[in-house]
Amino acid sequence: MADKFIKVNKRYPLRRIPTGEELLHDAALNKGTAFTEAERNALDLRGLIPPRYNDIETQVTRVMENYRRKPNDLEKFIHLAGLQDRNETLFYRVVMDNIVELMPIIYTPVVGKACQEFGHIYRRARGIWLSKNDKGRMKELLRNWRAAEVRVIVVTDGERILGLGDLGANGMGIPIGKLCLYTACAGVDPQVCLPVTLDVGTNNEALLDDPLYIGEQEKRLRGPEYDELIEEFVMAVQEVFPNCLIQFEDFANLNAFRLLNKYRDRVCTFNDDIQGTAAVTLAGIYSGLRITGGKLADQMILFLGGGAAGVGISDLIVSAMVDEGLSQDEAKRRCWLVDSKGLVVKSREGLQDHKLAYAHDHEFQPDLLSAIKDLKPTILCGVSGQPRTFTEEIVRTMGEINERPMVFALSNPTSKAECTAQQAYEWTDGRAIYASGSPFDPLEYKGQKFVPGQGNNAYVFPGVGLGVVACRAKHVTDQMFFTAAKSLAHQVSEDDLANGCIFPPFTKIREVSGSIAVAVAEEAYASGLATVERPADLLEYIESQMFQPVYPDFV
Asked: Nearest CA to 525 among 462, 483, 463?
């Protein structure tokens, strides 16, 4: 038959419709048993699939029945990854219909386990893999990707995967997972999303000795050669995929800050560990203040962890406090860091550059408990990647200092949380305002129901990405994340707060992301960064851009 073409999505170019087995192996077009009689006849599918037609609702039921039979979370992850490889539309319909149940599987905490086991559970290639051996050829390799247009890239070098450390090329699970959330949470079309791993080696001895490791079994690349590789990649993206947003993900502290600072004014980019984490945390603080009745400018925030997340959150909080009338110096004096060596103060030698802005002129304290007793913070925020570091004494001390202490245990995955929700509530007699990075189930304490808030970046980065893509912003600014934080906090209801939850239910994530996208796009238009003419109804326009998991009609 002559070639036929279809627009799978009205916003992107026509695609040739393959036939027969080729069509069944095209994840973007495959409908499985949902091909109609007319489509089966026209596309040479007769005999290649079971004769009975199933609508997508029936297919969802079958997928979830099989999913729930799996013996453990890793097998559930593999099951869903296989579906994504076979039938992308059905995969996203399943995820969107069951977002609360599946979110912990396709992303944190289970994606962390999947990354640790990536070489052992590897089934099929997804995304683009680049290594030092590809130097000088990156434009060529990016053009190997199936889509002519890419609007969002999530890229990692695998050095700091969640709180699990250096997983090298196994870290590809993170860009894949993040882009799943771009689509499921905010409707960014999967056909314009590209996960990328820069395999620059690993210092993880277990991986270097693992015969099933999928990356180069060499020590990590450092110095000018590393920087040249990143530069070539970033510039290759500008040529091959113009108007593409690059999200840097899970880079170690020694590279995360400097790469963000190097490229943020040159290309359209952001670092979710620094900026996304900051926005979702600030939103949680804003919501918490609706419970305590205080002002942001009056808070004292103490961070356990002096890396990308802690400094990124501090930077955004400082901007928000300045917006409330404080000077930069006054605002910075309300944000303090405790790292592995104690309180970050000016008298300490050898501090990394990114910590210097929060190295205050103050007496040194050797540990977190001493710092709490000295500074008397209203908010304790854990971004250390070190589990169980919010001990009973530490949390009880926060409860003695504050009537309603905010305790944010944000390290991922769940096994790395600084304390559990139950511990926070029990150790403060139910008075803590708690949030975590990975989910904890609702619980009862002394007859009161608590719904722990999950300060997950998925509340922020998909909506930010959608807003940036929709208006084709030239750059991503800190003000956009400040705007996103305020939008997110605004969507927390009084009923949510009554249950101790400082984030909206995840069942509303598409609505939340749409509102954030509008706020981000408004900021882009106001700052002159948008390159698409402003539509009369911005919300309607952005909603029209959101991918829906609906099968196309071929005939």
From this structure: 483
Instruction: Please say whether the beta carbons of 301 and 377 come within 8 A.
Output: yes
The residue assigned the tokens 């104690």 is 342
pLDDT, mean of residues 162-178: 96
Alpha-carbon distance of 47 to 419, in angstroms, equals 56
Catalytic, out of 178, 332, 355, 416: 178
Q: Is 178 a catalytic residue?
A: yes
**Considering the chain, what is the average pLDDT of its residues?**
95
Which residues are paired to 17 by β-bridges?
4
Q: Does domain 109-273 have CATH number 3.40.50.10380?
A: yes
Per DSSP, the residues of 387-428 read TT-S-HHHHHHHHHH-SS-EEEE--SSGGG-SS-HHHHHHHT
How many other C-beta atoms are found inside a 10 Å radius of the C-beta of residue 42? 17
CATH 3.40.50.720 domain position(s) in the chain: 275-458
CATH 3.40.50.10380 segments of the chain: 109-273
> Residue 346: is its pLDDT beyond 70?
yes
Among candidate residues 167, 144, 143, the one with its CA nearest the CA of residue 156 = 167
Output the pTM of the full model: 0.94
Q: Domain 4-103 - what CATH class?
A: mainly alpha
Q: Is 236 helix (H, G, I), strand (E, B) or coil?
A: helix
Q: Quote the CATH superfamily of domain 275-458.
A: NAD(P)-binding Rossmann-like Domain (3.40.50.720)
Sheet holding 342-343, edge to edge: 342-343, 335-339, 301-304, 379-382, 406-409, 433-436, 453-454
Q: What tokens were used for 536?
A: 């009369």
- For the segment 435-461, the average pLDDT, to the nearest whole number, is 93
Spatial distance between the Cα atoms of 100 and 96, rounded to a whole number of angstroms: 9
Which run of H or E residues covers position 538?
helix 538-545
- Intervals of CATH 1.20.1370.30 along the chain: 4-103
Using N-to-C axis directions, what is the helix angle for 308-323 and 277-292, rounded to 10°? 50
What digits encode the pLDDT tens for the residues 95-104? Answer: 999 999 999 9
The span from the CA of 90 to the CA of 56, in Å, is: 7
User: At which residue do the structure tokens 């979710």 appear?
Assistant: 272
- CA 360/CA 429 separation, integer angstroms: 33
Q: What is the DSSP letter of 158?
A: S
Q: Is 107 a catalytic residue?
A: yes
Whole-angstrom CA distances from 297 to 319, 331, 518 are: 11, 7, 27
Do 368 and 394 contact (CB within 8 A), yes or no?
A: yes
Residue 209, classed as helix, strand or coil, is coil
In the set 67, 92, 107, 459, the catalytic residue is: 107
**Residue that the structure tokens 């106001």 belong to:** 526
The Cα 380–Cα 375 span in angstroms is 11
